Amino acid sequence: MARLADYFVLVAFGPHPRGSGEGQGQILQRFPEKDWEDNPFPQGIELFCQPSGWQLCPERNPPTFFVAVLTDINSERHYCACLTFWEPVEPTQEELCARDAAERDEEADEGGPGALPPPTPSPPGQLFAPKTLVLVSRLDHVEVFRNSLGLIYTIHVEGLNVGLENVVGNLLTCVIPLAGGSQRTISLGAGDRQVIQTPLADSLPVSRCSVALLFRQLGITNVLSLFCAALTEHKVLFLSRSYQRLSDACRGLLALLFPLRYSFTYVPILPAQLLEVLSTPTPFIIGVNAAFQAEAQELLDVIVADLDGGTVTVPECVHIPPLPEPLQSQTHSILSMVLDPELELADLAFPPPTTSISSLKMQDKELRAVFLRLFAQLLQGYRWCLHMVRIHPEPVIRFHKAAFLGQRGLVEDDFLMKVLEGMAFAGFVSERGVPYRPTDLFDELVAHEVARMRADENHPQRVLRHVKELAEQLYKNENPYPAVAMHKVQRPGEASHLRRAPRPFPRLDEGMVQWIVDQATAKMQGAPPAVKAEKRTTVPSGPPMTAIVERSGGLHGNSARRLEVVRNCISYVFEGKMLEAKKLLPAVLRALKGRAARRCLAQELHLHVQQNRAVLDHQQFDFVVRMMNCCLQDCTSLDEHGIAAALLPLVTAFCRKLSPGVTQFAYSCVQEHVVWSTPQFWEAMFYGDVQTHIRALYLEPAEDRDSFSVGEAPVQEDERSALDVASEQRRLWPTLSREKQQELVQKEESTVFSQAIHYANRMSYLLLPLDSSKSRLLRERAGLGELESASNSLVTNSMAGSVAESYDTESGFEDAETCDVAGAVVRFINRFVDKVCTESGVTSDHLKGLHVMVPDIVQMHIETLEAVHRESKRLPPIQKPKLLRPRLLPGEECVLDGLRVYLLPDGREEGAGGPGGGPALLPAEGAVFLTTYRVIFTGMPTDPLVGEQVVVRSFPVAALTKEKRVSVQTPVDQLLQDGLQLRSCTFQLLKMAFDEEVGSDSAELFRKQLHKLRYPPDIRGTFALNLGSAHTPGRPPRANKDKGPSFRTLSRNLVKNAKKTIGRQYVTRKKYNPPSWEHRGQPPPEDQEDEISVSEELEPSTLTPSLALKPSDRMTMSSLVERACCRDYQRLGLGTLSSSLSRAKSEPFRISPVNRMYAICRSYPGLLIVPQSVQDNALQRVSRCYRQNRFPVVCWRSGRSKAVLLRSGGLHGKGVVGLFKAQNAPSPGQSQADSSSLEQEKYLQAVVSSMPRYADASGRNTLSGFSSAHMGSHVPSPRARVTTLSNPMAASASRRTAPRGKWGSVRASGRSGGLSTDVGSRLAGVGPPQANGAPPEPGFLRPQRAALYIIGDKAQLKGVRPDPLQQWELVPIEVFEARQVKASFKKLLKACVPGCPATEPSPASFLRSLEDSEWLIQIHKLLQVSVLVVELLDSGSSVLVSLEDGWDITTQVVSLVQLLSDPFYRTLEGFRLLVEKEWLSFGHRFSHRGAHTLAGQSSGFTPVFLQFLDCVHQIHLQFPMEFEFSPFYLKFLGYHHVSRRFRTFLLDSDYERIELGLLYEEKGDRRAPQACRSVWEYVERLSKRTPVFYNYMYAPEDAEVLRPYSNVSNLKVWDFYTEETLAEGPPYDWELAQGPPEPPEEERPDGGAPQSRRRVVWPCYDSRPRAQPDAISRLLEEMQRLETELGRPPERWKDAWDRVKAAQRLEGRPDGRGTPSSLLVSSVPHHRRSLGVYLQEGPVGSTLSLSLDSDQSSGSTASSSRQAARRSTSTLYSQFQTAESENRSYEGTLYKKGAFMKPWKARWFVLDKTKHQLRYYDHRADTECKGVIDLAEVEAVAPGTPAMGAPKTVDEKAFFDVKTTRRVYNFCAQDVPSAQQWVDQIQSCLSDA
């Protein structure tokens, strides 16, 4: 029973002490005057009566009522019901009160005056003061309070004849039961009657209608988020203008939280004076009047719910976790069914006539029922995770949070995690965890209804039915009796507050009230307590845990099979079948990713432990430890699934004997897991063990007693849970004697104490490392380190200088550190012991004892570990697989021998056996080797089931782009190890974890060596150059010393002179007079030495371009007269070295040697093509206008339109100003810059004039008919034309199409707009498609075209004035810079080789990262600009490409243009020429862009050349028949231009190559077998052996100009970036590759049938083209094989291929054979398109014969269709040659030595004087010519010496050599006379010529 009301208080308005306008509340009277003992008077009531402040009012307000809630220090809630009414303020209010008190009292007793006077209006200036009646109670009966206070007010206002003292006294003495569903009628003695119903269960909250109102005001979503916010301890603030609404809302929110109790600040109505409470740091639920909304706005972390506006505002910094998923949506939908039943029927065609809507009170209960169900689902099974730590004297219960979350599968769930960590849940556990107590609705629900709720999940109607049932129970709890309650309470009349009250509220007689109260108290004490005994029972636990959130079993679906594998493996281990176990281990380790398998492992291992100990041998021990580590590695710090808990007893059980008396336990090998350093894990474990022991304590006697009865009884006994045992004990507790009680308490306490000692030991086992030097690791482990830092390190670190000190301590005191570990562990254990012992009630003496024991335990353990550590070091190391040594190239040396590493998967899916199929090759176990050339990993897959494949991954050291340290888990032992991730620009990635045996110093050494090799201080340190030096010392001195200085001295002198010349030119500025034109072609006289020719050391003839050279010197000359450039210039007919003057005059261009000393431009080649009319000395001045002095030079001329392509660097700032300026007279003081830009203008003019179709019009009539708008100085805006022109180009660069009209308007202003629009719109990408490469009509002069287009960078050409005569035109384009290429490449690399396996690998993610890299967009821009230039050249305009410094993008564009325009460059020879000319000679900075040396390290790798190759690859894909070389050739170059294996791509220009002596050495004595130094030489050698670089589909069109599509959608990702061959590493070092599969005869045993040759080809492992060569390669291989079987020397693949081609051509003709001429005519066109076969001279491979005569050169005159695609006229004849004798001047058999390393072979030779050639055949009758030696190339015929493998029987004098410009042929006749005859015949042929 409890009092209905504790205090009655009268509070009135009083003036503020400081005299401010606001008043303050004053307590006039309170009853009873002295506090109740059990319930002191609450402070601060006067604040809560008027929460908005005490103010006077100008008018009389109606009375108000609300209930405020105060919470006292014991967190008891007091309900203050406040009824406020207003009274007029009178000046002498107090005196009147005092004087009239007595009279009023008497009047009241007699019944008072019957009627009140009618209401009178208050006087005008009248103010009204508030007065409040307050009831303070601990019970929440709002309606009773409202009625009682109302009654008192009515008596006062209506002047009823009832004594107020009696009413108040009766109110204060009224006593009602707390709960139990009783009904009580009370009367306050004023003729009133009220019925109070108490709820059935005290624990269920009473909500009346508050929950329904809350939903009505805020809506479902808002209430749900408030619900989650309150549960997860956020601050919630309600705003409303109504106080009653505020307290209702708060009550409603608390009712929803049931069964949890809100334990933080709870103030439904907060007074204005206390608003600063809102900035408290703790969570709260508070209500505030909406008037103070502004103050609430400033709070940053408070969730504001505006009840009047229906909004909930969540600040940005606050995250409210939502309910876990199925529950969130289920709750939402069921709430909407309850609140809005119409919603379900809204769409029905025939809705039912009416739906019964529940009353508000009932709806309130239904909503609460929904939340009650929600809690039952959230907390189902919680009782199975309770730990009974103590039973007597009071239960101590702990909740195992991690286990609960783990079993529910909600570990990741933010919401539940926070709820379980919250205070409310802690209260829930201590209140509801008690096993023996009264139960309520929630206990029943969570125990018995869970299954029903699971079943109903998908049936909304059944859910609704359940909700209604629960709602009935809740309603019944609040209203146990039907509504018989007849309330009868008087109320004041209508508008009574407006009537003038007779007088203020009277002062009550304290004595009288006190007397009534005393009377009642006395009566109460006499009466027996009418307490209904609580019914206490054992709380049901419900079914054991089942996960509500069903996890998808996709990953571990076949778990039964997996568990079987785990069991088998363990049984093999313990049976000693180690080989079997080893096979299963990888599968087991994979299976252990699943929870079930980990549990199974723990159970299985338990079975093998006898008497807490299991001694294993070393191998068994290793297996067990590995499996344990694998289990533990996925354990989080909380160990939700209890895996660590299950293994904890095992790690102290499994052990091995190291030596007599020294045993190593498993715990020393499984310490590296975060779970061991988590205090929460240890606490949960400890409490679990304590519970087991305490349960056993009470079960033992029971078992003894039952032992004689039927065997099942003890078993049943045994099955009782600890909670059942505890419940039973709590029931018996009151019946036990004091002694028995004491004894039980003591037993429990000592049980807990002994467990604490046990755990102190266990913790020291797992926290102290085996090797104390690893202590650092331990300190870093989560728990210990953090706890430490919290206590001490924060203090020290704040002191200045502490950082410096810490270094010293690190190095100086190793021993101190080990003690420090001990200290850290002791502190950790002590903290643990303190916490668990105080919580579980261990006595303080015992606790002190523990603190003394812990350091001893730790110390003892450290000592035992020392012995174990010492002995474990002596163990023989585990047998690791033998290291596989990689194959090395000749000259490649190992720098660091193999370091054991694991190669980890890196996100290339196929390698990991991913979607590409194939087993998991990675992770692989092996070693990494560092050689002078490569980084190589070789090893085997760690998974033995994959097989014995060797995994090789390597890349050239030079290709390394990024190296970073990583910390990774080794795949086998799952230990955290240091690792390295190396990324290379050849798209390989090595992600390695070092084995434990590799010390950190070895790893560091590896990094340093790698760095040293990657960035040598000087280019001489690179592999390509070191490789040569290894061979040079042993070579004999040159024999031909007398013929002239050796190449090396030559180049040295050349450089010396260059330096001198450069010095002289720039220092002395001596005037250089070029010789007059007449002398230009001839050698200068001996005495005349000009500045540029080499003067001092060398005789001039070596450098003079002349044909009058001795043949022996011609090589010297040819090496100096540039290699690639010159040959190409001659082929193109761009200039000549001939001395005939007449010819030189007519040529528009000439080869100028002005730069042969590299004096004008270091990065240009020595010989340049310039217009005939420009003097050499002018070039010097022109070059100053251009960046890097790279002035415009011609690099290609179209054979058809005769337009030329020029290249240069961008314009210099200083030159730009004067360039294209108005044609005004030069001022007298003309500056140098002006003169040079004038020169520049003249130069461009010369270029224009040298073009044939412009030259004949001498530059006037062609382009003169334009309006003056474009001329001179009066262009309105100098930028106008340039800018408009730039727009479409920019547009086309970004793939937008510009309106076609713009170009028209740009050009048509003064010209006819016809064709120009075509070019313009073509530029913009929208022009009419042209017939593919239709030739222009020759006679048509196009006046609209500019003669020269200058393609320049938009930024450079700003403000440039157009050329006055419109002869050249600027095309500004936007290009990307080198740094953008670099950035883009980095992203491309990341996309193709991610570095770590993707979380969800999908093609989309690869494509997305590919798009982000913008690589294809750059390719698109390059192709687009190139196609534009091709169009312009094809239409007869010349183009100057002048971008950046002229060596990156310029080179890319110029090379692509030539490749697209000229079929010659699409042959092997031509492409080589193109690269040598445009990339090498014109100075693309390979070393700088490839970061070859230490100096370039900072600039990083910029793949400009690779980008060019990618563009070529895109064109190759679109025109596969136009290229002689295969895509592999491009990949090969892409790989080797960064590999630094060859010298070809080293250094930045020819000048640098000469300086190092690289350029001419290659031309040296080729016969000496040595490593290839040039990539071209290597390609040549290789293509003789195998057709790997040859494209069988090669069948070019005549003079075809290619115009590829360049849109990004047409581009493909180059497979060079994505493919990988793990079988042998990258396939570009051919010697290392394994070659084609062996021919079957090797596999077949003698005489037996051939075995099956089937083999598995794996993606990403095998090289598919090698494993399955294409049909043609297969047939060629087969032919070679058959020939060798027949004992014939196999012929070269090229010869066979050509023969097949020719034969096929003949078959194609209807009559089979015909005369040679008809054959020629009929079959040539057909043959060219379909087959395109050209014979090459066998031994030399695909080299072209280049004569110095331009008319004869191979594809020079593209206009003559017959010669267009032929190699040379001579080969043309020989293809169709019959065996007629008229062409055979002399013939016979000669032995010929094959090319390099090939044997001597007898061939039938024919000397043909008519065609001036020496042909050879396989035998006399052979019609197919095998090769041709062009006599024009022969330099000498000399006697020879027998070389290796020559025929033995022949006389030495029968040998002779024929030396051509390209190679030396070794011949041997059958005898001396015939040899002499051959020599004579060849000599006579030569002399005739």
Write the layout of secondary structure elements.
Elements: E1 2-3, E2 7-15, E3 23-31, H1 45-49, E4 64-71, E5 77-88, H2 93-110, E6 128-137, H3 142-158, H4 164-173, E7 175-176, E8 183-186, E9 194-197, H5 210-218, H6 220-231, E10 235-240, H7 243-257, E11 265-267, E12 284-289, H8 293-297, E13 302-306, E14 311-313, H9 325-339, H10 342-345, H11 360-378, E15 386-390, E16 396-399, H12 401-408, H13 414-421, H14 423-432, E17 436-437, H15 441-448, H16 450-456, H17 460-478, H18 510-526, E18 537-538, H19 559-575, H20 578-591, H21 595-607, E19 614-616, H22 618-633, H23 643-651, E20 654-659, E21 662-665, H24 679-706, H25 712-718, H26 722-732, H27 738-767, H28 775-780, H29 782-798, H30 802-812, H31 814-839, H32 844-873, E22 894-903, E23 924-931, E24 934-941, E25 951-956, E26 960-969, E27 976-984, E28 989-994, H33 1000-1014, H34 1023-1031, H35 1047-1068, H36 1077-1080, H37 1111-1120, H38 1124-1132, H39 1141-1146, E29 1149-1152, E30 1168-1171, H40 1176-1183, E31 1193-1197, E32 1204-1208, H41 1213-1218, H42 1232-1249, H43 1252-1255, H44 1280-1293, H45 1301-1308, H46 1314-1324, E33 1348-1353, E34 1368-1373, ...
Parallel strand pairs: 10-12, 10-13, 11-12, 19-20, 32-35, 33-34, 33-35
Antiparallel strand pairs: 1-7, 2-3, 2-6, 4-5, 5-6, 8-9, 13-14, 15-16, 17-18, 20-21, 22-23, 22-28, 23-24, 24-25, 26-27, 27-28, 29-30, 31-32, 36-37, 36-42, 37-38, 38-39, 40-41, 41-42
Helix pairs in contact: 3-4, 4-18, 5-7, 5-11, 9-11, 11-15, 11-17, 19-20, 19-21, 20-22, 21-23, 24-25, 24-26, 24-27, 27-31, 27-32, 31-32, 38-51, 40-42, 44-46, 45-46, 47-48, 49-50, 49-53, 50-51, 50-53, 53-54
